[in-house]
TrEMBL record:
Gene3D superfamilies: Tetratricopeptide repeat domain (1.25.40.10), Winged helix-like DNA-binding domain superfamily/Winged helix DNA-binding domain (1.10.10.10). Keywords: DNA-binding. GO terms for biological process: phosphorelay signal transduction system; regulation of DNA-templated transcription. The keyword Repeat does not apply. Residues 6-104 bind DNA. It comes from the Bacteria. The keyword DNA-binding applies. One of its GO terms (molecular function) is DNA binding. This is OmpR/PhoB-type domain-containing protein. The lineage of its organism: Bacteria, Pseudomonadati, Pseudomonadota, Betaproteobacteria, Burkholderiales. Residues 6-104 form the OmpR/PhoB-type domain.
Length: 445
């Protein structure tokens, strides 16, 4: 149980800089906090009750309208703590059997008030807050991006672009658009390289307007990784972690960067840090499993991690497919292929990674015809099915796809070449030439 009676002092939330507008949105020093509805409602309750404890019954009645479980409240508070950690001036204390209380870190509030503002946009004070509906739209778009399905990507893109058309100075929307571009570049490559360059240009305008916007440096590093500029990406990722040391997404992006740059043991540490900060994200849980595999951990340990992820996220399609994928890698059996086929029949390709995962599972478990059918149906110039081709011993065919993907200059190829399933490609006589092209811009040691 946390206890911070000494931190409350005489500073109330309003004096610390928190305000609630008539639409129920919370701002800190005139900057709107980007909180989903449940987290926003819980934070409003904590702000209004300060310095008193908010009971579980109050959360249930006022935020969940009576349909709340202890698990859903714990998840909400964990997400809220994560979202507020970047501010550095509050914490949420838990009181066993009672509820939660907001604590104002008085010393940090006073310390911040003594520090002159470092960077200010001359226009920022003149820019009106975006309409509440546009903020809600961006929150919904971010949730869609988390699903990482083709349909969700398309919906998110339309929403974000609509928000930007109506509120061109809303920097959160521009940051989300850049994140969308990075996600598409990594997961299905259904964009052009010029879109990555354009997104990086937009992020420079965000940097000028709101240099401390959470996620800015991390998404910048993510985009630079997508275009294989790993030297520049390293700087952005390190800045992201320095500015937001409790940002789970920053650790997650950094973990993949470390995989690309041949530092997989460190990637495991980064992914574990991400999971510790956000144990409710199935995407981060999958990232940890893949980092463990890339770090050449014992396959049994990797499988144990995949099983643990599934037990924590039993309803996540991505986690389930990841478990089947890991099972096929460790101990291929016909039953695993059958489970993968059944999953596709039930869920279609509900995640952007499903086709490459299922193709590998079938190939690894002996169903080469089924794997080849998926590869043909879901083909991509970015070589997304290299693991399946390698599992079938089709190394020349795989290398042909690698060469085509290398010419694009962006995408998921660095990751595909780093996973243990594709290790045999490194023995191909043409690999050295491809490696120099893909990994030519590595960080200085």
């Amino acid at each position: 149980m946390h206890n911070s009676l000494g931190t409350l002092a005489d500073i109330d939330p309003v004096s610390a800089g928190f305000t609630i507008d008539r639409d129920g949105f919370v701002s800190y020093k005139d900057s709107l906090l980007f909180l989903p509805p449940k987290e926003r409602g819980a934070f409003r309750l904590l702000l209004n009750a300060w310095p008193k404890v908010v009971s579980k019954d109050d959360f249930s009645k006022n935020v969940w309208v009576g349909r709340m479980s202890d698990e859903s409240l714990a998840r909400c508070i964990a997400q809220l703590r994560r979202a507020l950690s970047n501010l550095g001036v509050v914490q949420i204390d838990s009181f066993y059997g009672q509820g939660y209380r907001l604590a104002i870190l008085a010393d940090k509030v006073r310390r911040l008030s003594l520090v002159p503002a470092m960077v200010h946009s001359p226009q920022k004070s003149d820019v009106a807050k975006p309409h509440a509906a546009l903020v809600e739209a961006c929150i919904h778009a971010r949730q869609l991006l988390e699903r990482r399905s083709p349909d969700a990507f398309s919906q998110a893109e339309a929403i974000i672009k609509n928000v930007i058309s109506k509120a061109p100075n809303y920097m959160v929307a521009k940051l989300l658009l850049a994140q969308y571009i990075a996600e598409r570049a990594f997961f299905d490559g259904n964009i052009q390289r010029s879109q990555i360059d354009d997104a990086l240009g937009e992020l420079r305008s965000v940097q000028d307007a709101e240099p401390y916007l959470q996620g800015l440096q991390s998404v910048t590093g993510y985009l630079l990784d997508c275009k294989w500029h790993f030297d520049e990406a390293r700087v952005a990722h390190e800045q992201a972690l320095q500015m937001s040391p409790d940002d789970d997404v920053a650790y997650y992006h950094y973990g993949f960067h470390l995989i690309y740059t041949n530092a997989s043991p460190a990637a495991v540490d980064a992914m574990r840090s991400a999971v510790q900060r956000n144990p409710f994200s199935p995407n981060i849980a999958v990232g940890l499993v893949r980092a463990c595999a890339c770090a050449n951990m014992d396959p049994a340990e990797v499988l144990a991690q995949a099983r643990s992820a599934y037990s924590s996220h039993p309803d996540s399609p991505a986690i389930y497919v990841n478990l089947l994928y890991t099972l096929a890698w460790v101990d291929p059996q016909p039953e695993i292929a059958h489970a993968a086929r059944h999953f596709v029949q039930k869920n279609r390709y509900a995640h952007a990674l499903t086709s490459r995962a299922v193709a590998y599972i079938l190939a690894r478990c002996g169903d080469h015809a089924g794997a080849l059918e998926i590869i043909e149906k879901h083909s991509s110039i970015h070589g997304i099915h290299l693991a399946a081709l390698t599992a079938m011993g089709m190394l020349d065919e795989a290398m042909t796809k690698v060469k085509v993907a290398a010419e694009t200059g962006f995408g998921v190829l660095p990751f595909s070449l780093s996973v243990p399933e594709c290790a045999a490609l490194k023995e191909h006589p043409d690999y050295a030439q491809v490696h120099a092209k893909v990994f030519g811009r590595m960080p200085a040691e």
